[in-house]
Amino acid sequence: MIYDLELISVGKTYSDGTVAVSDFDLKVEKGEFVAFLGPSGCGKSTTLRMIAGFEDITNGEVMMMNRNVTHLPAEKRPTSMIFQNYALFPHMTVRQNIGFGLEVKGLPRAERDRKVERILDMFDLTAVADRKADRLSGGQRQRIALARGLVVEPEILLLDEPLGALDANLRRIIQNELKLLQRELGITFIFVTHAQSEALGLSDRVVVMSNGVVEQISAPKELYRRPATPFVADFIGANTLIEGRSLPSEGGFARLDTPLGALAGVGAPEATLAVIPAEAFRLSPQGTAGEICLPATVTGRQIVGATGYFRMQLADQREIRIETHAERALGLDAGASVTLALDPASVTMIAG
Ligand code: ADP
């Protein structure tokens, strides 16, 4: 199999001794949209810059279409990068900004003009093509940056928090455009973000990073459904994490002895942490066969339209939040005792 991009045990230690990334392994297929997600300082941008060729690689190898590019300069790689601040040349016109990369590549004038005109049209920028880049709105500048990245026809487009400078509304609009564009062009996108919703909403796969280490690489749904590490379980979605001592498996489920009693879930028998998504808790007087039943006390309730929002206290005093249909919330005031049922298939057991 030929991958568009392959990172083999890639690591980066800066000259001051900071270990920014270690042992990063990744294989990306043609046309995939992959997001690097994690808190600030976890090594996302460093990795992206190593892929682009803007940062030396301390260990490991970078392959693109079966070719080792580890020591290839940025301009010789089949990549193009879009920066958070767009890095447009303010004194150049939109047209000049977009054409710049082609000029650097030494394309003949006529071919350059043809490509620039086509992409101006595609991004609806023809009307402002002769304006200076600093005279335009945030959304237009974002489009110019994208156009400039794509006009050189890269195999892989690298995007470093490209929507970070936009307000929430524009961000949503451009997110949609970006996804459609990526599908249409079939270009591989590697997208760095610290915004969970952006990574989960846009990408085919998400690489979750923390402290320079890859925690998990999965499709967005899988990250929600089956977090692989305590960091991911805490970082993605709204999970309740309960530590325990492993018990012998039963009925195909791993089991844990916890302060809430025995819990069952999907995972390795030696797991020591149960991860319960907020939506897995179900208000039910006795649960159905095979379900885990947990006693709880209502500590707060709010009804908004058809939804009831509850705060509940579990037997170990921890508070959780759950949502249910408003009808079920009637009569359940603060202080009421309830039973929460859990399907073990929705619980994930991981190593703590
Ligand atoms: P992210 O993109 O996830 O916010 P970065 O890749 O920018 O993370 O940074 C990862 C780590 O490397 C951080 O600890 C950061 O302080 C450090 N770092 C980034 N650039 C440099 C540099 N040029 N010199 C030394 N340390 C750096």
TrEMBL record:
Q: What protein name is recorded for this chain?
A: ABC transporter ATP-binding protein
Keyword Secreted, does the record have it? no
User: According to the entry, what is the taxonomic lineage of the organism?
Assistant: Bacteria, Pseudomonadati, Pseudomonadota, Alphaproteobacteria, Rhodobacterales
Q: Name one GO molecular function term.
A: ATP binding
Q: Which InterPro entries match?
A: AAA+_ATPase, ABC_SmlMolc_Importer, ABC_transporter-like_ATP-bd, ABC_transporter-like_CS, Mo/tungstate-bd_C_term_dom, P-loop_NTPase, Transp-assoc_OB_typ2
Q: Which organism is it from?
A: Thioclava litoralis
SMART domains (UniProt xref): AAA
Q: Cite the ABC transporter domain residue spans from the record.
A: 5-236
Keyword Transport part of the UniProt annotation: yes
